[in-house]
Amino acid sequence: MKSICLHCKGAQSLRKIIVCDGYTLTTESGTGAARKGRRITPEKANDYKEYVSRLKTLCKSGSPYFSDCEVLVLDKLHGFGLAMQQALKLVKTPYVVVAQHDRMFRSKGWDLEDLCNVLKKEQKVNYIGYLSHRQLRYRKRMVTQHKMDPKPVTLHGVPLIPLFHFLDSMHIARKSFWKYMFDSGTIKVRDFPEHTFGNEQRWDIVKNGIKAFDKYGTYLLWDMKDVIQHVNGRTYFSKEQRVEKGFPENKELNQLFKSLEVEEKKRK
Predict the structure, then answer these.
(1) Are 198 and 166 in contact (CB under 8 A)?
(2) pTM for the whole thing?
(3) Which of 22, 138, 160, 177 has its Cα between 20 and 30 A from that of 167?
């Protein structure tokens, strides 16, 4: 939340909805398939309830990073895709910014006002994704894997490239486009849309050519600035905790968090 508010201009004043998915109880240890299926032990369920309670308290704390923020707690397992469907029932605007729990801004991203301007003026654009390090090689991968070259374009001052495969990662999109994805019938319980809808989109375009792209209208920012960083639970362990658990030091992410502290001090 801090990285979004500090590096994504326009996000600070937005209404924010944090979705906490449900789960299925199990007596297993919570590794492998059990963990991936969101099946957790009663002990872990109690930890999760405590986490949700603290999150609600944080949203009421007056923190500038959690202003106008609410928590939506789902009573059963949905998975990312269907959890988004529940959250969108609360969204009243035509556009929505989607931020996964394991993504953060590593540096300043495009202002939301600029991206909203593209969506307002270009009905053919339904989705604009922020670049991660992996996606810097996206165009080359499409040429190598599918002999298709997505041609970059600049719309209203914003450099973009057609994205042939929907990605769940940090993006802004039309609410109506998410409805279009749900109506496609490809998103089920536990599904990530990029694994289901995204794969169908890619193979539709590969089979039927670039003309098939028009009904999707998904684009990536193409300024070659990888502003999105993937993080995981281990990221937030202190140096002492990492040593205790035998995890290697993560110098890159340590530097990233230090840069956030610097940016925060600038704003004060």
Answers:
(1) yes
(2) 0.88
(3) 22
